[in-house]
Batch of 2 targets.
Target 1
Amino acid sequence: MLALGCDVGTMFTKTVVMDNGNVKGHNITRNTGALREIVDASIHHAAERAGVTLDDIHVRGGTGMGDKYIGIDHVNEGVIKCIARGACWALKEVRTVVDLGGLSTTIISLGETGRVIEYRTSDKCASGSGFFLELAAQALELSVEEMGATVVAPEDCAHMSTQCAVFCESEIVSHVNDGMDVRSIVGGINYSLGSGIATMINRLGIKPAILVTGGVAKSRGVVIALEKHLGREVVKTVPADHQLIAAIGAALCARERRQS
């Protein structure tokens, strides 16, 4: 059975087309301009990559803050439920999901059957988010990819006294003006982000296996820093792009709703 899932986030729109639980086509598009047009294009690109038309897909699920911009008939699914369902698809034994999105960090605790037991979201602060990393990258005149690929030993990291996206930018500029090595600054940013995310996880309670999802999950520097603060490894490899997990969950939830 073909199923489509679309996750309209704060910074990107992610769409997948699945066939019997396997991703056949997907699309990730930056949200710049008219959001309804962006979402429509993402959906059509994903269907095209899957080699099907929208008329072939009768099961459609949507989620995310911009779900209202999905212009095709679909079932709305809660984003926490979708992240959890997508995470269980990626890793059956997952018990803690760490979703690092564009403007928020969400920690979800799951039971043995994949049921959501408890979750916490830091959606009132951009710390630990993709937006935070973009601000930092701009201040250092680097790409987000360059920052993510930078791994620095803790003892060589610059000290970052704040995890606030606004104040961190001025602190970065201060370090640059003092002539500090850029790698040390990037390492300090990643280490600081890892610390904040680890604090959220510890407050909820760590239950392995831990799976990291969302766009920031692609940042190797942040994920390794997170592991150092947690004192344990997290699962870094998934069968699909980390950003697609909620969209995959939306498709699966919609399919299961249809079958029930």
Target 2
Amino acid sequence: MTEHPGSETAVRGRAHRSASVSGIRVLDRAMQILALLAEAEAGLGVTEIARRVGLGKSTTHRLLSALARAEVVRPDPRTRLYQLGFRLLQWTAGWLDRMDVRTRALPHLRQLREKCQETVSLNLHDGLSRVAVERLEASQEVRFVAELGQPLPLHVGAGGKAILAFLPRPEADRALKAARLALREERLVRRALAEVRRTGSAVSFGERIAGSGAVSGPVFNHEGRVIGSVSILSVAARLSPDTVRSHAELVRQTAAAVSRELGWAG
């Protein structure tokens, strides 16, 4: 059935496409403004920004106001000149921190893999989650594979528990509240976290993937704050009690070495 150009559905479709194109244009113009401010040696006023990006003054002012609300630009209250905002610096610093942790951890992860002959990974704390940012796979035919970049809850798996156990109490409570665990399950998790704090390492079996096992140790930054974990990932069949104890010592040593690279006094 052919849709009439003037039908309500056709009109809505055109309006949606028009709004999408308009949104892309706004984003493109906002990026032009940010690029201009990034290259400017000093702050720029609305009139000068409008002239350089080829926009009307009122449109430029609306864009700058929106960017200022997002804290990616900031006006000087005295001169009314605009500069890049501190939010961009925060984002950049966070990204650089992650890259720096990965770079510093890599040699230690290689050594860990050689010693344990299993897959090893580096996880970083990210809000209510942890994310695997590096993985070195074992040569074993049957091995555990960590998915890079996928946010995972902190209370599930050794890699998350090694972080959650050492977070400040209010943050740990928020993470557990967000998980919406049953009362009995939350008590079991808290008991497990107490054991992680006591031993300095976390162990899990099949919490995310049946037949898997993991042993992890916490990574701390120069402020003594937990920022991630180092994990040995295996299949449960290869994790005898003696092997778990050996792996636990290895992840503690490796996590401590990475932490010292980041300025942790230990």
